[in-house]
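Long-time lurker. I teach an intro course on protein structure, and each term I like to show students one example going from raw sequence to a predicted 3D structure in token notation. This year I'd like something fresh instead of my usual example. Would anyone be willing to generate the tokens for the chain below so I can use it in lecture? Attribution to the forum is fine with me.
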Amino acid sequence: MRKTGWAVSSGIASADVKELHQSDSCPVPPQHHDEAVRPDKPPMGVRTLKAGLHTAVALCLMTALVHVALVFLHVAPSNPVSKRYSSQVNGWVFPLFEQNWRLFAPDPDSFNRKILARTAYTDSKGSVQVTPWFDLAAVDHSAVDHNVFPSHTSQNLLRRAWTSYVETHGGSDTARSERAVMLQTYLRNIAADRVAAHNDGGAFDFLQLRVVTLPVPAPGTPAGNRPPAPTEDRLLPWWKVTSHGK
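-- Reply from a regular --
Happy to contribute to a lecture. Here you go:
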């Protein structure tokens, strides 16, 4: 019985060994490095688009940081940095990003101003033709009156352009600084665009402004038929502008 048991057990062991040898001898497909699973690369167009998007985001962030820094130097108290780079700061801030504290301490105008404009052009016969005066301020007032949500452009664009012009020029119409030249051009372009928009395509090459300043009557003053006398009637020189309406 021992021999038989040993024979049986040895037969099982030999069978296991044969199976192991057979399993070891099974052909295993060789693995090549080229056949390894690799992530698919995006097409060249997608990579270019991503690179352009990242560049655009970086430029936007840099522009935002520079804008915040320049506006901070503009509103901050005078310091060596703001004094040294005052021309760069003013060139960036004015006239589109001007900052002031009038929101917290408003200073309403105590005068009503009529900003009038007229144009001139040379006709085919060589004679100069001058148009009648056109009230630019009246157009803004009509856009604001009875309007629940008037636009910032109608309320402040022309008015602020004129007050900035007076601040830099005073009583003279000669620009004596780079900022004065810039604000003169700014006022001239606004007036030219306003006139062209209401001129029905009429051509003009020259523009002149006239500003009539009227006092605001005191509360309770009875309204009379006689209009108040103007405190100032300022006539600006003729300005050469880009041809409109041609």
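Some talking points for your students: Residues 1-13 have pLDDT under 50 and may be disordered. The longest helix spans residues 44-75.
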